[in-house]
Design goal:
With 150 residues, the chain is mainly beta. The chain contains two helices and ten strands. The chain has helices at 2-8, 12-23; strands at residues 41-42, 47-55, 61-68, 70-73, 76-79, 88-95, 100-107, 114-121, 124-130, 143-149. A hairpin with a 4-residue loop joins strand 6 (88-95) and strand 7.
Length: 150
Amino acid sequence: MKHLSSLLRGGLPAALLILLWLAGPAARAQVPAWQMAMTVSQATTAESTIEQTATDASGNVFVTGSFYGTVTFGTRTLSTTPFIIYRDVFIAKWSPVTSQFVWAAQLNDALGSLPMALVVQGSSIYLSTAGTRNSIGHLYSTLLFLVIDF
């Protein structure tokens, strides 16, 4: 006990080290197995990013993000207007039952918006977007709120 008390006088770091050593190995959770990973097909001059995800009561996954160029979600191909510097917003529905995209759509707002929030409630999708920078770098603020019934 005399040695333990002198070690504890050495400070809090030493005491914590002893407690961690006495605790022994902790139980570790197992890493869950991946069910699936999908890529979005896109041309070499295209780019896409997923910004938000949401699920519905049936387990379908809704993804939204932005892209430029040509991207393909399953059998649905989306393309931006050539020579436009802004990105378009996309939204797509993925079915875990069929392991395929059910549908995909794009928002051509010509403002370079980015998706900020995605909520699915019942048979409605709520998507909000906000503006980004214009062609000369000035920041502007726009907010678009969409309700999509599917």
